[in-house]
Amino acid sequence: RGKRLSLTFRTALEVDGFTDLAVRKCRGLPQTTAEKPTTSIATLGKQDQGRTISNDTTTVDTSNVTTITSCTTTSAAINPKRTPPTELHHVQKLYDAIAVQWHHTRGKRGVIWPSATTFLTSLPRGSLVADVGCGDGKYFAFCQQKSLGLVVLGTDVSQGLLKQTIHKANDHFDGSSSSATTSKRSQRTRPNVAVGDCVNIPLRSCSMDAVLCVAVLHHLSTRDRRLQALREMTRIVKTGGKVHVQAWALEQEEKSRRKFKDRDVFVPFNVQPRFLKQMVQDLPDLKGDISAKNAGEAYTDAYNTLQQQEQKEEEETTLPNNQPSSHASSSTATNNKVEYNADKGLVTFQRYCHVYKKGELEELVRETPGLTLVESGYESSNHYVVACKDTDIT
Question: Rg (Cα) of the chain, in Å, rounded?
Fold first, then answer.
């Protein structure tokens, strides 16, 4: 039951319903630069059993945005499907760590962008929508309104965020019914989600009627990976289907608390102290009871030790031509550590973002085979584009 998926999702994943879901029949997920095995698709149900769910929590503080340049290094020899260390440490692992607080401060507020809701409302009833980079699934409820009747399939590189979509579905029940009844209802409302990178989406070609991708492309650190993500969205959508992409803008509104001096930045994300003790329990290097007073410092030390070990492995990684990976070199210049503020009792993570200047998203769409730009705009310090697939691309 832990591996059960809906028939619609099994079809989209090319799973026959009998094969173990850890076996991938569709495109495999990308390896990190250190060539470590990546989580297989659609394994959340199985992996949830017996595993402590991350309670790492954070809030955002963008008063000290750091400009970076090293992470944008590109090379023709680097496969755009391979996760660069910048994204591995400052996007994927970061969101796994902060997933609970992210859902608490962002997902539960239910803030969704008007351009995205307008796009979803325009789709025919019964459309199959891929929410690429769905996070904690904040658009799921809107898609599943009876008036729209959309079927949404979500993918995200962060397993921690995807777990929040499952907990959100379980939260709809207050436990007043019998456990058996509640369990059945929970299974019916369990979202269709799978771990998957946006540059290598684990869905069949030409299987979706539309693609929604909000707040994802600004976490991709190279132009090649941004184009690869758009190519993948084009691949999975049917001819005539539409793609909606939205990302942070370099040009922020006057009232925005974020001000960017450059397009590649690290945005601080501060962990709330009331969750630090729970965060500590998820790091294997920490043993024994950790008091709430020193939980933040203990977590910081253990996290940084783990990061140093992994960074050393990445720096030793070489490409087939025996040349050091430029992404690995980039990781050396990038500070992968988190910081502990003893005065405030906060742990600060650095979140990587590439913010888009006006016209940049449109340019990427024009360079993507099979996509035609339909609409573009700006809202709430975000740029967005809507594109249509006019040719079959596999």
Answer: 21
Residue 349 has pLDDT above 60, yes or no: yes
The answer to whether the beta carbons of residues 31 and 40 sit under 8 Å apart is: no
With 0-12 CB in 10 A as exposed, 13-18 as middle and 19+ as buried, what is 109? Answer: exposed
**Model confidence, pTM:** 0.74
Contact 122, 143 (CB under 8 A): no
Q: What is the pLDDT of residue 72?
A: 45
Q: Write out the two tokens for 221.
A: 């650190």
Strands 382-389 and 371-379, sheet pairing? antiparallel
- Rounded to whole angstroms, the Cα distance separating 153 from 156 reads 10
Residue 90 DSSP one-character state: I
Calpha distance 360→2 (Å, rounded): 42
Cα dihedral 360/70/94/349 (nearest 10): -110
For residues 258-296, one letter each, b for 16 or more C-beta atoms within 10 angstroms of the residue's C-beta and e for the rest, the string is: bebeebbbbbbbbbbbebbbbbbebbeebeeebeeebbb
Determine what percent of the chain is predicted with pLDDT higher than 90: 42
